[in-house]
Design brief:
Sigma-70 family RNA polymerase sigma factor, Arc Repressor Mutant, subunit A, 0% strand, globular, RNA_pol_sigma70_r4_t2, sigma factor, transcription
C-alpha cells in the first residue's frame, strides 16, 4: 500500500500500539514524561517519513524508530551535562542567560551530529586538536598513526565541515 493513505494507517497504528510503545519507552528511560515525548516523536516520524503502510511487523518497526530516538535522547543529555559541567567551572558573573544556554546546547548538538558522520579516527583527531589542543604529534601517538595521517584526518574533517556549511538549507 502506498504512503498516500499514511494518516489513516498511522492513526490505526497509534491506536493499536501507542500504549505498548509508551510502556517500552518508560522501561528504557525510567521517566514517564520523556517516554511520552519520544512516543509522540516516533509517530510523528511515521507521518513525515514515506513508508509502505500498513506495516508487516509494526512493533519491530516502532521499536527501531524508538531505539534511535532513545539513543539521540541520551546523547543530548550527555551533551547538556557536559555543557552544564563546563559552565559550573566558570565564575557566576560569566554565566550565560537561559536563552544563550539553550542556543549553545542546540549549536553543540548540531556540531555533534555533523561530527558523528565522520569516520572514527578523523573525528577523534579533529576533536583532540580543537578541544584538547593536542599537537599533530600527540594525536598521532594517541591514535597510533603517523603525523602525515593526522594531517589527512584533519583535512578530511575540515572538508567535511566546509561541505556541511556550504550545503543548501544550512
Amino acid at each position: 500500500m502506498s504512503s498516500a493513505n499514511a494518516p489513516e494507517h498511522v492513526d490505526l497504528l497509534y491506536r493499536d500500539h501507542h500504549g505498548w510503545l509508551l510502556g517500552w519507552l518508560r522501561r528504557k528511560l525510567g521517566c514517564a514524561h520523556d517516554a511520552a515525548d519520544l512516543a509522540h516523536d516516533a509517530f510523528l516520524r511515521l507521518l513525515r517519513r514515506p513508508v509502505d503502510l500498513p506495516l508487516r511487523e509494526p512493533r519491530a518497526y516502532l521499536t527501531t524508530i524508538a531505539h534511535g530516538l532513545v539513543v539521540n535522547h541520551w546523547r543530548r543529555l550527555e551533551i547538556e551535562r557536559a555543557w552544564l559541567d563546563a559552565l559550573m567551572q566558570q565564575p557566576e558573573s560569566c554565566q550565560p542567560s537561559p536563552e544563550v544556554r539553550a542556543l549553545a546546547i542546540e549549536a553543540l548538538l548540531e556540531v555533534d551530529a555533523l561530527l558523528s558522520t565522520l569516520p572514527d579516527k578523523p573525528r577523534r583527531a579533529f576533536l583532540m586538536a580543537q578541544l584538547d589542543g593536542f599537537t599533530y604529534r600527540e594525536i598521532a601517538t594517541e591514535l597510533g598513526v603517523s603525523e602525515r595521517m593526522v594531517k589527512k584526518y584533519m583535512a578530511q574533517a575540515m572538508l567535511h565541515c566546509l561541505r556541511a556549511e556550504l550545503a543548501p538549507g544550512t
